Amino acid sequence: MRKACCLIAILLVSASLWAQNYKAKYDDKFKYGYIDDAGKWVIAPQYDYAADFGKGLGEVTINGKDGLIDAKGKYIIPCEWDDIDTYYYEKGLVIVKKDNLYGLMDSKGRQLLKCEWSDINCSNIESDSIVVEKNNLSGAFNLKGEQVLPCKFDTGFIKNKWGYYDVSIQKRFGLYDGAGKELVPCKYDATDYYPDEKGFIEVTLGGKKGLCNMSGTEVIPCTHEFIILISGKHYWCKLNGKDVYYDFTGKEIVDPNSLTNDTPTKDGVRLSGNWSFSVDNSERTTSLAGEKIENKSSTSETGNLKLRLFLTDEKYSGGSISGYIAFEAYFKPLKNGYYYYDIDKRYEFATIPDGNYYATLCLLEDDGGYSIVDYLCFDNLITIDNSAERLQSIADALNQTANALNAINNSSNPTLPSPSPGANTPSSGPTLHKVREECSFCHGTGKNPAKEYPPSYGLERTYDKPPCPVCGGRDNHYHKKCPSCNGKGYVEKFKR
What we know:
The protein is 8% helix and 43% strand. It is mainly beta. The longest helix has 25 residues, at 387-411.
Protein backbone atom coordinates (compact mmCIF):
# COMPACT_ATOMS: atom_id res chain seq x y z
CA MET A 1 0.00 0.00 0.00
CA ARG A 2 2.86 2.34 0.93
CA LYS A 3 4.58 1.60 -2.39
CA ALA A 4 1.38 2.34 -4.28
CA CYS A 5 0.95 5.65 -2.45
CA CYS A 6 4.57 6.59 -3.20
CA LEU A 7 4.07 5.75 -6.88
CA ILE A 8 0.91 7.87 -7.05
CA ALA A 9 2.74 10.74 -5.35
CA ILE A 10 5.61 10.50 -7.86
CA LEU A 11 3.18 10.48 -10.78
CA LEU A 12 1.31 13.49 -9.38
CA VAL A 13 4.56 15.42 -8.89
CA SER A 14 5.70 14.52 -12.42
CA ALA A 15 2.36 15.60 -13.89
CA SER A 16 2.52 18.83 -11.88
CA LEU A 17 6.02 19.62 -13.15
CA TRP A 18 4.99 18.84 -16.74
CA ALA A 19 1.96 21.14 -16.46
CA GLN A 20 3.94 24.12 -15.08
CA ASN A 21 3.07 27.28 -16.95
CA TYR A 22 6.03 29.41 -15.93
CA LYS A 23 6.50 32.69 -17.76
CA ALA A 24 9.86 34.11 -18.70
CA LYS A 25 10.70 37.51 -17.20
CA TYR A 26 13.80 39.68 -16.91
CA ASP A 27 14.93 41.73 -13.93
CA ASP A 28 16.45 45.18 -13.72
CA LYS A 29 19.79 43.75 -14.88
CA PHE A 30 18.10 42.26 -17.96
CA LYS A 31 18.71 38.72 -16.79
CA TYR A 32 15.92 36.26 -17.47
CA GLY A 33 14.27 33.87 -15.05
CA TYR A 34 10.79 32.44 -14.53
CA ILE A 35 7.74 33.46 -12.52
CA ASP A 36 4.60 31.49 -11.65
CA ASP A 37 0.99 32.57 -12.18
CA ALA A 38 1.15 34.66 -9.00
CA GLY A 39 4.15 36.59 -10.29
CA LYS A 40 6.56 35.01 -7.82
CA TRP A 41 10.08 34.13 -8.93
CA VAL A 42 10.41 30.34 -9.11
CA ILE A 43 13.69 30.22 -11.08
CA ALA A 44 16.02 33.11 -10.33
CA PRO A 45 17.11 35.48 -13.14
CA GLN A 46 20.40 34.17 -14.55
CA TYR A 47 19.95 33.71 -18.30
CA ASP A 48 20.63 36.03 -21.22
CA TYR A 49 17.29 34.96 -22.69
CA ALA A 50 14.50 32.54 -21.82
CA ALA A 51 11.31 31.37 -23.55
CA ASP A 52 8.06 30.58 -21.72
CA PHE A 53 7.75 27.04 -20.41
CA GLY A 54 6.11 24.42 -22.63
CA LYS A 55 5.92 20.62 -22.31
CA GLY A 56 7.46 21.02 -18.85
CA LEU A 57 10.59 22.61 -20.37
CA GLY A 58 12.22 25.98 -20.48
CA GLU A 59 14.51 26.89 -23.37
CA VAL A 60 17.23 29.23 -22.12
CA THR A 61 20.24 30.99 -23.64
CA ILE A 62 23.64 31.87 -22.13
CA ASN A 63 26.37 33.52 -24.22
CA GLY A 64 24.40 32.85 -27.42
CA LYS A 65 24.08 29.10 -26.77
CA ASP A 66 20.76 27.33 -26.12
CA GLY A 67 19.89 24.68 -23.55
CA LEU A 68 16.90 23.15 -21.75
CA ILE A 69 15.94 23.21 -18.08
CA ASP A 70 13.18 21.45 -16.16
CA ALA A 71 10.65 23.06 -13.80
CA LYS A 72 13.17 22.96 -10.95
CA GLY A 73 15.78 24.86 -12.96
CA LYS A 74 17.95 21.78 -13.46
CA TYR A 75 19.69 21.45 -16.81
CA ILE A 76 18.38 18.68 -19.06
CA ILE A 77 20.60 19.84 -21.92
CA PRO A 78 23.38 22.33 -21.14
CA CYS A 79 23.65 25.65 -22.97
CA GLU A 80 26.10 24.67 -25.69
CA TRP A 81 23.96 24.52 -28.85
CA ASP A 82 23.22 27.04 -31.60
CA ASP A 83 19.57 25.93 -31.71
CA ILE A 84 17.27 23.34 -30.12
CA ASP A 85 14.07 21.81 -31.51
CA THR A 86 11.78 20.29 -28.83
CA TYR A 87 8.92 19.30 -31.16
CA TYR A 88 9.59 15.57 -30.57
CA TYR A 89 10.40 15.88 -26.87
CA GLU A 90 7.22 14.02 -25.86
CA LYS A 91 8.52 11.14 -28.00
CA GLY A 92 11.83 11.25 -26.16
CA LEU A 93 13.94 13.11 -28.75
CA VAL A 94 15.46 16.59 -29.06
CA ILE A 95 17.14 17.87 -32.23
CA VAL A 96 20.18 20.08 -31.60
CA LYS A 97 22.19 22.26 -33.97
CA LYS A 98 25.83 23.31 -33.97
CA ASP A 99 27.82 24.94 -36.79
CA ASN A 100 24.82 24.53 -39.15
CA LEU A 101 24.76 20.76 -38.66
CA TYR A 102 22.18 18.74 -36.74
CA GLY A 103 22.44 16.06 -34.09
CA LEU A 104 20.03 14.19 -31.83
CA MET A 105 19.69 13.81 -28.07
CA ASP A 106 17.24 11.89 -25.95
CA SER A 107 14.99 13.49 -23.33
CA LYS A 108 17.59 12.77 -20.61
CA GLY A 109 20.31 14.73 -22.39
CA ARG A 110 22.25 11.77 -23.82
CA GLN A 111 23.55 12.32 -27.34
CA LEU A 112 22.31 9.73 -29.85
CA LEU A 113 23.68 11.29 -33.04
CA LYS A 114 26.56 13.70 -33.36
CA CYS A 115 26.05 17.06 -35.08
CA GLU A 116 27.23 15.98 -38.51
CA TRP A 117 23.98 15.90 -40.53
CA SER A 118 22.51 18.54 -42.81
CA ASP A 119 18.99 17.35 -41.89
CA ILE A 120 17.29 14.95 -39.46
CA ASN A 121 13.75 13.67 -40.05
CA CYS A 122 12.08 12.26 -36.92
CA SER A 123 8.54 12.00 -38.32
CA ASN A 124 8.97 8.22 -38.55
CA ILE A 125 9.84 7.58 -34.90
CA GLU A 126 6.70 5.49 -34.29
CA SER A 127 8.35 2.98 -36.67
CA ASP A 128 11.70 3.12 -34.81
CA SER A 129 13.30 5.05 -37.63
CA ILE A 130 15.22 8.32 -37.95
CA VAL A 131 16.25 9.44 -41.44
CA VAL A 132 19.39 11.59 -41.76
CA GLU A 133 20.88 13.55 -44.65
CA LYS A 134 24.45 14.42 -45.57
CA ASN A 135 25.86 15.65 -48.90
CA ASN A 136 22.40 15.30 -50.48
CA LEU A 137 22.27 11.59 -49.58
CA SER A 138 20.20 9.89 -46.89
CA GLY A 139 20.51 7.01 -44.46
CA ALA A 140 18.61 5.74 -41.43
CA PHE A 141 19.15 5.05 -37.72
CA ASN A 142 16.98 3.37 -35.10
CA LEU A 143 15.99 5.07 -31.84
CA LYS A 144 19.05 3.61 -30.08
CA GLY A 145 21.31 5.60 -32.40
CA GLU A 146 22.37 2.48 -34.34
CA GLN A 147 22.77 2.90 -38.10
CA VAL A 148 20.32 0.79 -40.10
CA LEU A 149 20.94 2.12 -43.63
CA PRO A 150 24.17 3.72 -44.84
CA CYS A 151 23.99 7.29 -46.07
CA LYS A 152 24.04 6.48 -49.80
CA PHE A 153 20.41 6.77 -50.92
CA ASP A 154 18.47 9.56 -52.63
CA THR A 155 16.80 11.91 -50.15
CA GLY A 156 13.10 11.84 -49.37
CA PHE A 157 12.45 8.26 -48.26
CA ILE A 158 10.92 7.10 -44.98
CA LYS A 159 10.10 3.72 -43.46
CA ASN A 160 6.65 2.86 -44.81
CA LYS A 161 3.73 1.64 -42.71
CA TRP A 162 4.47 -1.99 -43.60
CA GLY A 163 7.96 -1.66 -42.07
CA TYR A 164 10.01 -1.47 -45.30
CA TYR A 165 12.30 1.20 -46.74
CA ASP A 166 11.36 2.07 -50.33
CA VAL A 167 14.67 3.67 -51.36
CA SER A 168 16.46 4.76 -54.52
CA ILE A 169 19.98 5.47 -55.77
CA GLN A 170 20.08 7.97 -58.63
CA LYS A 171 16.32 7.43 -59.07
CA ARG A 172 16.68 3.64 -59.42
CA PHE A 173 14.46 2.00 -56.81
CA GLY A 174 14.87 -0.94 -54.48
CA LEU A 175 13.47 -2.27 -51.20
CA TYR A 176 15.05 -2.89 -47.77
CA ASP A 177 13.47 -4.41 -44.68
CA GLY A 178 13.25 -2.60 -41.33
CA ALA A 179 16.56 -4.08 -40.15
CA GLY A 180 18.42 -2.73 -43.21
CA LYS A 181 18.62 -5.98 -45.19
CA GLU A 182 18.49 -5.54 -48.95
CA LEU A 183 15.49 -7.31 -50.46
CA VAL A 184 15.56 -5.77 -53.94
CA PRO A 185 18.64 -3.99 -55.35
CA CYS A 186 18.27 -0.38 -56.45
CA LYS A 187 18.09 -0.91 -60.20
CA TYR A 188 14.39 -0.68 -61.09
CA ASP A 189 12.05 2.07 -62.26
CA ALA A 190 9.73 1.16 -59.38
CA THR A 191 9.17 -1.54 -56.76
CA ASP A 192 6.13 -2.56 -54.77
CA TYR A 193 6.03 -1.26 -51.19
CA TYR A 194 5.97 -4.70 -49.57
CA PRO A 195 6.09 -8.42 -50.53
CA ASP A 196 2.84 -10.15 -51.52
CA GLU A 197 1.37 -13.06 -49.56
CA LYS A 198 3.80 -15.47 -51.24
CA GLY A 199 6.87 -13.37 -50.43
CA PHE A 200 7.39 -11.92 -53.92
CA ILE A 201 7.95 -8.26 -54.74
CA GLU A 202 6.67 -6.74 -57.96
CA VAL A 203 9.28 -4.67 -59.84
CA THR A 204 9.11 -2.53 -62.97
CA LEU A 205 11.85 -1.92 -65.52
CA GLY A 206 11.37 -0.19 -68.86
CA GLY A 207 7.60 -0.18 -68.35
CA LYS A 208 7.52 -4.00 -68.00
CA LYS A 209 6.78 -5.90 -64.80
CA GLY A 210 8.44 -8.85 -63.10
CA LEU A 211 8.78 -10.49 -59.69
CA CYS A 212 11.72 -10.71 -57.29
CA ASN A 213 11.98 -13.04 -54.31
CA MET A 214 13.14 -11.87 -50.86
CA SER A 215 16.76 -12.37 -51.89
CA GLY A 216 16.47 -9.95 -54.83
CA THR A 217 16.51 -12.65 -57.51
CA GLU A 218 14.14 -12.14 -60.45
CA VAL A 219 11.84 -15.16 -60.43
CA ILE A 220 9.73 -13.77 -63.27
CA PRO A 221 11.64 -11.40 -65.60
CA CYS A 222 10.55 -7.81 -66.30
CA THR A 223 9.00 -8.53 -69.67
CA HIS A 224 5.26 -8.53 -68.84
CA GLU A 225 2.47 -6.00 -69.18
CA PHE A 226 0.99 -7.03 -65.83
CA ILE A 227 1.26 -9.72 -63.15
CA ILE A 228 -1.63 -10.85 -60.92
CA LEU A 229 -1.61 -13.49 -58.19
CA ILE A 230 -4.62 -15.77 -58.76
CA SER A 231 -6.28 -17.53 -55.82
CA GLY A 232 -2.92 -17.74 -54.05
CA LYS A 233 -1.94 -20.59 -56.43
CA HIS A 234 -0.12 -19.12 -59.42
CA TYR A 235 0.56 -15.91 -61.34
CA TRP A 236 -1.42 -14.79 -64.37
CA CYS A 237 0.63 -12.49 -66.63
CA LYS A 238 0.30 -10.75 -69.96
CA LEU A 239 3.30 -11.18 -72.29
CA ASN A 240 3.15 -9.39 -75.65
CA GLY A 241 -0.63 -9.42 -75.47
CA LYS A 242 -0.90 -13.13 -74.63
CA ASP A 243 -1.90 -14.81 -71.35
CA VAL A 244 0.91 -16.73 -69.66
CA TYR A 245 0.98 -18.45 -66.27
CA TYR A 246 3.81 -19.12 -63.81
CA ASP A 247 4.22 -21.18 -60.66
CA PHE A 248 6.08 -19.89 -57.61
CA THR A 249 9.48 -21.02 -58.91
CA GLY A 250 9.06 -18.84 -62.01
CA LYS A 251 8.44 -21.86 -64.22
CA GLU A 252 5.89 -21.30 -66.98
CA ILE A 253 2.77 -23.46 -66.75
CA VAL A 254 2.44 -24.75 -70.31
CA ASP A 255 -1.00 -26.37 -69.95
CA PRO A 256 -3.54 -23.58 -69.33
CA ASN A 257 -6.35 -26.16 -69.26
CA SER A 258 -5.12 -27.34 -65.86
CA LEU A 259 -5.90 -23.86 -64.50
CA THR A 260 -9.52 -23.67 -65.65
CA ASN A 261 -10.89 -23.70 -62.13
CA ASP A 262 -8.31 -21.22 -60.89
CA THR A 263 -8.76 -18.40 -63.39
CA PRO A 264 -10.98 -15.51 -62.34
CA THR A 265 -14.65 -16.47 -62.39
CA LYS A 266 -15.68 -12.84 -62.82
CA ASP A 267 -14.43 -10.72 -65.66
CA GLY A 268 -14.12 -6.96 -65.26
CA VAL A 269 -13.15 -4.70 -62.37
CA ARG A 270 -13.07 -6.15 -58.85
CA LEU A 271 -12.01 -5.44 -55.26
CA SER A 272 -9.07 -7.65 -54.23
CA GLY A 273 -7.20 -8.41 -51.02
CA ASN A 274 -7.84 -7.07 -47.54
CA TRP A 275 -9.88 -3.92 -46.90
CA SER A 276 -10.48 -2.02 -43.69
CA PHE A 277 -11.86 1.31 -42.55
CA SER A 278 -12.19 3.46 -39.43
CA VAL A 279 -14.83 6.09 -38.64
CA ASP A 280 -14.03 9.10 -36.43
CA ASN A 281 -17.44 10.53 -35.67
CA SER A 282 -16.03 13.42 -33.63
CA GLU A 283 -14.19 14.66 -36.75
CA ARG A 284 -16.80 13.22 -39.17
CA THR A 285 -14.09 11.47 -41.15
CA THR A 286 -13.62 7.97 -42.49
CA SER A 287 -10.26 6.45 -43.41
CA LEU A 288 -10.33 3.55 -45.89
CA ALA A 289 -7.43 1.24 -46.74
CA GLY A 290 -7.35 -1.61 -49.24
CA GLU A 291 -4.98 -3.67 -51.32
CA LYS A 292 -6.22 -3.51 -54.91
CA ILE A 293 -8.87 -2.53 -57.41
CA GLU A 294 -8.15 -4.79 -60.39
CA ASN A 295 -9.40 -4.80 -63.95
CA LYS A 296 -9.39 -8.53 -64.65
CA SER A 297 -10.72 -8.12 -68.13
CA SER A 298 -8.34 -9.31 -70.83
CA THR A 299 -9.78 -7.01 -73.49
CA SER A 300 -11.60 -3.90 -72.28
CA GLU A 301 -10.90 -0.74 -70.28
CA THR A 302 -13.24 0.24 -67.44
CA GLY A 303 -15.28 3.38 -67.19
CA ASN A 304 -14.74 5.91 -64.39
CA LEU A 305 -14.77 4.18 -61.01
CA LYS A 306 -16.11 5.15 -57.62
CA LEU A 307 -15.81 3.65 -54.13
CA ARG A 308 -18.61 4.22 -51.64
CA LEU A 309 -18.97 3.00 -48.06
CA PHE A 310 -22.64 2.72 -47.16
CA LEU A 311 -24.03 2.48 -43.62
CA THR A 312 -27.38 0.67 -43.69
CA ASP A 313 -29.96 -0.59 -41.20
CA GLU A 314 -30.04 -4.04 -42.81
CA LYS A 315 -27.15 -6.15 -44.06
CA TYR A 316 -26.69 -5.74 -47.81
CA SER A 317 -27.13 -8.85 -49.96
CA GLY A 318 -27.01 -7.45 -53.49
CA GLY A 319 -29.13 -5.32 -55.82
CA SER A 320 -29.81 -1.64 -55.18
CA ILE A 321 -28.64 -0.09 -51.92
CA SER A 322 -29.76 2.91 -49.90
CA GLY A 323 -28.14 4.24 -46.75
CA TYR A 324 -25.82 6.89 -45.39
CA ILE A 325 -22.58 7.55 -47.29
CA ALA A 326 -19.61 7.44 -44.90
CA PHE A 327 -16.92 7.40 -47.60
CA GLU A 328 -16.58 8.25 -51.29
CA ALA A 329 -13.63 8.37 -53.68
CA TYR A 330 -13.30 8.56 -57.47
CA PHE A 331 -10.80 6.82 -59.75
CA LYS A 332 -9.91 7.18 -63.41
CA PRO A 333 -10.57 4.28 -65.84
CA LEU A 334 -8.34 1.20 -65.62
CA LYS A 335 -6.87 -0.43 -68.67
CA ASN A 336 -7.33 -4.17 -69.00
CA GLY A 337 -4.93 -6.04 -66.72
CA TYR A 338 -4.05 -2.93 -64.70
CA TYR A 339 -4.91 -2.13 -61.08
CA TYR A 340 -4.81 0.50 -58.36
CA TYR A 341 -3.00 -0.73 -55.25
CA ASP A 342 -2.20 0.41 -51.71
CA ILE A 343 -5.39 2.45 -51.64
CA ASP A 344 -5.55 4.65 -48.57
CA LYS A 345 -7.86 7.64 -48.50
CA ARG A 346 -9.74 9.88 -46.09
CA TYR A 347 -13.23 11.35 -46.49
CA GLU A 348 -15.27 13.92 -44.57
CA PHE A 349 -18.94 12.95 -44.34
CA ALA A 350 -22.13 14.76 -43.36
CA THR A 351 -23.88 14.11 -40.05
CA ILE A 352 -25.18 10.56 -39.69
CA PRO A 353 -28.01 9.93 -37.16
CA ASP A 354 -27.33 7.92 -34.01
CA GLY A 355 -27.65 4.18 -34.41
CA ASN A 356 -25.95 0.86 -35.16
CA TYR A 357 -25.28 0.26 -38.84
CA TYR A 358 -24.01 -2.42 -41.19
CA ALA A 359 -21.13 -1.29 -43.42
CA THR A 360 -20.83 -2.20 -47.10
CA LEU A 361 -18.05 -1.10 -49.44
CA CYS A 362 -19.32 -0.82 -53.02
CA LEU A 363 -17.28 -0.47 -56.19
CA LEU A 364 -19.23 1.36 -58.88
CA GLU A 365 -18.43 1.77 -62.57
CA ASP A 366 -19.72 4.46 -64.88
CA ASP A 367 -21.20 2.80 -67.94
CA GLY A 368 -23.67 5.49 -68.92
CA GLY A 369 -24.50 5.78 -65.20
CA TYR A 370 -22.85 4.38 -62.08
CA SER A 371 -23.79 0.84 -61.08
CA ILE A 372 -22.41 -1.59 -58.50
CA VAL A 373 -19.92 -4.07 -60.00
CA ASP A 374 -18.49 -5.50 -56.77
CA TYR A 375 -18.97 -5.11 -53.02
CA LEU A 376 -17.66 -6.21 -49.61
CA CYS A 377 -19.82 -6.57 -46.47
CA PHE A 378 -18.14 -5.97 -43.11
CA ASP A 379 -19.26 -8.12 -40.20
CA ASN A 380 -19.04 -5.73 -37.25
CA LEU A 381 -21.80 -3.21 -36.56
CA ILE A 382 -20.77 0.44 -36.62
CA THR A 383 -22.08 2.64 -33.78
CA ILE A 384 -22.71 6.32 -34.47
CA ASP A 385 -23.16 8.43 -31.32
CA ASN A 386 -23.56 12.20 -31.62
CA SER A 387 -24.41 12.81 -27.95
CA ALA A 388 -21.05 14.45 -27.16
CA GLU A 389 -21.46 16.86 -30.08
CA ARG A 390 -25.01 17.73 -29.00
CA LEU A 391 -23.91 18.35 -25.42
CA GLN A 392 -21.06 20.55 -26.64
CA SER A 393 -23.49 22.54 -28.81
CA ILE A 394 -25.79 23.03 -25.82
CA ALA A 395 -22.86 24.07 -23.63
CA ASP A 396 -21.66 26.56 -26.27
CA ALA A 397 -25.13 28.02 -26.61
CA LEU A 398 -25.53 28.37 -22.82
CA ASN A 399 -22.09 29.96 -22.58
CA GLN A 400 -22.91 32.49 -25.29
CA THR A 401 -26.21 33.30 -23.59
CA ALA A 402 -24.51 33.74 -20.21
CA ASN A 403 -21.87 36.02 -21.72
CA ALA A 404 -24.52 38.10 -23.46
CA LEU A 405 -26.59 38.48 -20.26
CA ASN A 406 -23.47 39.30 -18.30
CA ALA A 407 -22.53 41.98 -20.83
CA ILE A 408 -26.01 43.51 -20.71
CA ASN A 409 -26.08 43.45 -16.92
CA ASN A 410 -22.65 44.99 -16.53
CA SER A 411 -23.17 47.66 -19.17
CA SER A 412 -26.52 48.87 -17.82
CA ASN A 413 -26.57 51.98 -15.61
CA PRO A 414 -30.04 52.38 -14.07
CA THR A 415 -31.09 55.65 -12.43
CA LEU A 416 -31.01 55.19 -8.67
CA PRO A 417 -32.56 57.39 -5.99
CA SER A 418 -30.22 59.83 -4.29
CA PRO A 419 -28.44 58.10 -1.49
CA SER A 420 -28.99 59.20 2.06
CA PRO A 421 -26.09 60.94 3.78
CA GLY A 422 -23.37 58.51 4.76
CA ALA A 423 -24.66 55.72 2.55
CA ASN A 424 -22.39 53.96 0.04
CA THR A 425 -22.96 55.23 -3.49
CA PRO A 426 -23.40 52.40 -6.02
CA SER A 427 -21.08 52.70 -8.99
CA SER A 428 -22.13 51.91 -12.56
CA GLY A 429 -20.96 48.53 -13.89
CA PRO A 430 -18.11 48.49 -16.40
CA THR A 431 -18.89 47.84 -20.06
CA LEU A 432 -17.72 44.51 -21.53
CA HIS A 433 -16.49 44.38 -25.10
CA LYS A 434 -16.31 41.29 -27.21
CA VAL A 435 -12.82 40.86 -28.63
CA ARG A 436 -11.08 38.26 -30.73
CA GLU A 437 -7.72 36.93 -29.65
CA GLU A 438 -5.38 34.64 -31.53
CA CYS A 439 -5.68 31.09 -30.27
CA SER A 440 -2.66 30.39 -28.06
CA PHE A 441 -2.75 26.68 -28.86
CA CYS A 442 -2.59 26.81 -32.68
CA HIS A 443 -1.24 30.40 -32.98
CA GLY A 444 -3.90 31.36 -35.49
CA THR A 445 -3.55 28.46 -37.93
CA GLY A 446 -6.77 26.74 -36.87
CA LYS A 447 -4.91 23.42 -36.91
CA ASN A 448 -3.73 21.11 -34.15
CA PRO A 449 0.11 21.30 -34.15
CA ALA A 450 0.30 17.52 -33.67
CA LYS A 451 0.91 15.62 -36.90
CA GLU A 452 -1.51 12.97 -38.13
CA TYR A 453 -0.40 10.34 -40.63
CA PRO A 454 -3.25 9.39 -42.95
CA PRO A 455 -2.73 6.77 -45.58
CA SER A 456 -1.32 8.13 -48.82
CA TYR A 457 -2.43 6.94 -52.24
CA GLY A 458 -0.42 3.89 -53.20
CA LEU A 459 0.97 5.12 -56.51
CA GLU A 460 2.13 8.44 -55.10
CA ARG A 461 5.69 9.22 -54.12
CA THR A 462 6.45 12.13 -51.79
CA TYR A 463 9.84 13.49 -52.73
CA ASP A 464 9.62 17.19 -53.36
CA LYS A 465 6.57 18.18 -51.30
CA PRO A 466 6.46 21.85 -50.26
CA PRO A 467 6.81 22.61 -46.53
CA CYS A 468 3.64 22.18 -44.47
CA PRO A 469 2.19 25.66 -43.68
CA VAL A 470 1.44 24.52 -40.11
CA CYS A 471 4.65 22.81 -38.98
CA GLY A 472 7.06 23.09 -41.92
CA GLY A 473 7.43 19.32 -42.31
CA ARG A 474 7.81 17.78 -45.76
CA ASP A 475 6.62 14.27 -44.95
CA ASN A 476 3.16 13.05 -45.92
CA HIS A 477 0.89 14.13 -43.05
CA TYR A 478 -2.03 16.37 -42.13
CA HIS A 479 -3.31 18.31 -39.11
CA LYS A 480 -6.72 18.01 -37.49
CA LYS A 481 -8.57 21.18 -36.56
CA CYS A 482 -7.48 22.88 -33.36
CA PRO A 483 -9.44 21.55 -30.35
CA SER A 484 -9.11 24.85 -28.52
CA CYS A 485 -10.65 27.19 -31.11
CA ASN A 486 -12.49 24.53 -33.13
CA GLY A 487 -10.49 25.38 -36.24
CA LYS A 488 -11.23 29.14 -36.27
CA GLY A 489 -7.74 30.30 -35.34
CA TYR A 490 -9.11 32.72 -32.73
CA VAL A 491 -11.12 32.74 -29.52
CA GLU A 492 -13.76 35.28 -28.51
CA LYS A 493 -13.62 36.81 -25.05
CA PHE A 494 -15.42 39.57 -23.18
CA LYS A 495 -13.14 42.20 -21.72
CA ARG A 496 -13.71 45.40 -19.83
